[in-house]
Amino acid sequence: MPNSQFSSDLLPQHIAIIMDGNGRWAKKQGKPRLYGHRMAVKSVRDTISTASRLGIKVVTLFAFSSENWKRPEEEVSLLMDLFITVLTREVKKLHKNNLKLRVIGDKTRFNKALQQKIFDAEALTENNSGMVINVAANYGGRWDITEAVKYVATQVASGELIPENITEDKISQHLSMSDLPDVDLMIRTSGECRISNFMLWQMAYAELYFTELFWPEFNEQALLDAITWFINRERRFGCTSEQLQSLMKEK
Ligand code: IPE
Ligand code: IPE
Ligand code: MG
Fold this sequence. Notes:
UPP_synth-like_CS; 14% strand; alpha/beta; globular; binds magnesium ion; binds 3-methylbut-3-enyl trihydrogen diphosphate; 44% helix; peptidoglycan synthesis; Undecaprenyl pyrophosphate synthetase; single chain
């Protein structure tokens, strides 16, 4: 797929994806839920390669939410094993392709082996200049905001900051991905139309795209469809359509 398919200034800089529907997809074909999680890896690979070829700057993938610990112990443990296997298997390829991998979320709840794998993968790819891939694992939007607020509260407690000087910027500086652009396009598969505590702050002005496809069915064409839909949205950021049009004329 040539890069010229979309003009680069129209592309979303940051795409976030709630990769949902693995379990239902597997069940539909009489297979255990884990089969769906395993097959999901191919969709992740397709998404990463298509997005980086198009010149997308950041892709954030929701892999495991802070609420997913409530699932049956067996499923949680199989998901953790899969996470380790995929990290081990894929990280060299990502590095070779100059991609930067980061894991966002509360990593302290993972076992030591997984924490080490994450640390190694992040260290190996941290100086790469290509697309950033954030894997959100044990991540929750409320957790993220709470951590930032805790940080700001310690600055207030130490006298470094007065409450009157707390601004949106001061809070966002301490969120995950504070060095990256906000989300432009959020995609959720499987027909569910909710945010499920994903990036609440960073998605404040994201365009929300919902598709009926289950995540293991998501492929290059599905991503291109979502991006085409995004390009046809008018992002007004509080302005009127007329204001935007006169701004465009001035350009
Ligand atoms: C998304 O698929 C993957 C994770 C949350 C880990 P699900 O496992 O939620 O699949 P459904 O929604 O039950 O079909
Ligand atoms: C959201 O999916 C989290 C991930 C995709 C990792 P869920 O399937 O857990 O979301 P809910 O519980 O149906 O909202
Ligand atoms: Mg689900």
